[in-house]
Amino acid sequence: MRATLMHSAGDVRIEDVPDSRIKNPTDALVRITASCVCGSDLHPYRSMAPGSGPARMGHELIGVVEDVGPEVVTLRPGDLVVAPFAISDSTCAFCREGLHTSCAHHEASFWDGIDDEGGQAEAVRVPLADGTLVKLPVAADSALVPSLLTLADVLGTGYHAAKMAGVRPGHRVTVIGDGAVGLLAVLSAKRLGAEQIILMGRHPARTDLGRELGATDVVAERGEEGVARVRELTGGQGTHAVLEAVGHLPAYEQAFGVVRPGGVISRVGVPQYEEAPIGFGSLFRHNVRLAGGPAPVRAYIEELLPDILDGTIEPGKVFDVETDLAGVPGGYRDMDERRSLKVLVRL
Ligand SMILES: [Zn+2]
């Protein structure tokens, strides 16, 4: 079968690899019908250490179950399923608390942690299939597929940012980052009743989509200027919640610049730093809380799926380009160069 491999920074190739197959009794084999390139795939695309590759890529997928191991009970061949970016059993103590990304099962993992599998491929072995996969009540060629695919990562991640920040009706919210996660954090804040949603981003095509998804204000300035602009838009107070969907230190610095006293900074952009201010001048002085982490998107699928099925939300709007597997390397390049927002891959 064919799959996507990253050999080194900037070097993504489609190559023949051994066919994925069932190994454990709780596995499912899924023939992938839709996948995509993630903003987080761009971190290794820019900085993968020489000699550490090649790595199988892709962690967002929809596909058809081809085969199941003897211990799989909820799925059958022919089922259309979505796979979150994390493998989980959905039964351990952490999963039951809705924290599937901390699943205690020994097979729990992110896709990146499984050497010979990946979502940007023709097929994939899904461990802990009963816990990980969610059956979709539509056909593989449904017009809803782009929106349903966002349940695998970017919608659930944006929603996690808003949930961890405790966004509720009447809140003012700042979203930092106009990538797919930032835009769907906007959608999520709106869904949770935020009154003012300030989107910090500087790509007009993206911030226009942000307005469509619920942003009430757009701030293109960054750094101190951006902070001053958000303060101005909030009567000097800042916002109750700051949803940080970038992961670089300047975005975090912007976050504590715009958060309201007593507010929450919720980070879902994978931090590309280990050291950052948490002291008197940043968090402590005004009782600011820091939240967020890898989104347990599996926990949110049942809640968000009905809204997609009935058209209440259309998170699939973040896909602006569609390609096939052969187009994946070009998709990385276009996303890296910001020519496309998010690339949908049809197989
Ligand atoms: Zn678990």
From TrEMBL:
Keywords: Metal-binding, Oxidoreductase, Zinc
GO molecular function: oxidoreductase activity; zinc ion binding
Entry keyword Oxidoreductase: yes
Location of the Enoyl reductase (ER) domain: 10-345
Stored InterPro entries: ADH-like_C (IPR013149), ADH-like_N (IPR013154), ADH_Zn_CS (IPR002328), ER (IPR020843), GroES-like_sf (IPR011032), NAD(P)-bd_dom_sf (IPR036291)
Cofactor: Zn(2+)
Any one Pfam family match given in the protein's UniProt record, by short name: ADH_zinc_N
Family to which the UniProt record says this protein belongs: Belongs to the zinc-containing alcohol dehydrogenase family.
Name of the protein: Threonine dehydrogenase-like Zn-dependent dehydrogenase
